[in-house]
Specification:
- The protein is α+β, with helices and mostly antiparallel strands and 199 residues long.
- The chain has 2 domains: 1-30; 35-197, Sandwich (Jelly Rolls), CATH 2.60.120.380.
- It has 3 helices and 11 strands; from the N terminus they run αβββββββββαββα.
- The protein has helices spanning 6-30, 143-156, 189-197, and strands at residues 37-38, 45-49, 54-61, 65-74, 78-83, 89-93, 100-108, 113-121, 129-140, 164-167, 173-176.
Length: 199
């Protein structure tokens, strides 16, 4: 019968401990915050973000309100997801502007309650950066706004970018496969068109 030496047992235990700690670190990075922060009109929030992190914000809305949120990326690529009071996903946005520039999202509230905006780092290994989240507009939705939203949803829900060219900070060219969701983005149609037409 073979017996493992104490040194072998110690090495095995150390390896197991390292793997468990690594898994816990990855899980902590990718899980949303336990308690969402409030995001209110005229109160922008600027925060640092690391690769793989997820930040959540609570936005109280009443039925029929039009919400237009902008998250300004400052050195890190983020994606936005909006959930309703029932935690049903309403919109998801990841524009092809990478780590600089605005990520806009708009929606008309169909129910009264607290909506949750999720801001997440697109890449787990991303260099730390910052962003600013703010409510650009919050008002009662007019018929014109509803019409614009329907047209925007119809126009952009089928758009996908199957291959985009990305410039890293070092200036090296890198091709990545991305399919950003662009529904419920307007009223910034001109900006979105410009982004897709830029070589």
């Amino acid at each position: 019968m073979s017996h493992l030496s104490p040194r072998s047992n110690l090495a095995g235990s150390t390896s197991l401990l390292v793997n468990v700690l690594a898994a816990l670190c990855i899980q902590a990075q990718t899980q949303p915050e336990p308690s969402p922060r409030s995001l209110l009109p005229n109160q922008p929030v600027e925060r640092a973000m690391k690769g793989g992190e997820v930040h959540s914000y609570s936005i109280p809305l009443t039925v029929g309100q039009y919400l237009y949120v902008i998250v300004d990326q400052r050195g890190i690529d983020v994606a936005l997801t909006l959930f309703g009071p029932d935690e049903k996903k309403l919109a998801e946005v990841d524009s092809p502007n990478y780590w600089q520039g605005p990520e806009p999202l708009s929606v008309i509230a169909e129910a009264t309650g607290n909506y949750r905006l999720e801001v997440r780092s697109v890449e787990k290994t991303a260099v730390p950066g910052r962003y600013e989240a703010r409510i650009a507009e919050l008002r009662t939705a007019t018929e014109q706004v509803r019409l614009d939203m329907r047209l925007a949803r119809r126009k952009y829900s089928t758009i996908s970018v199957k291959s985009t060219v990305r410039w890293e900070r070092s200036g090296k060219r890198l091709t990545t496969m991305r399919k950003p969701c662009l529904w419920l983005l307007l009223p910034v149609t001109a900006m979105v068109r410009q982004q897709f037409s830029t070589p």
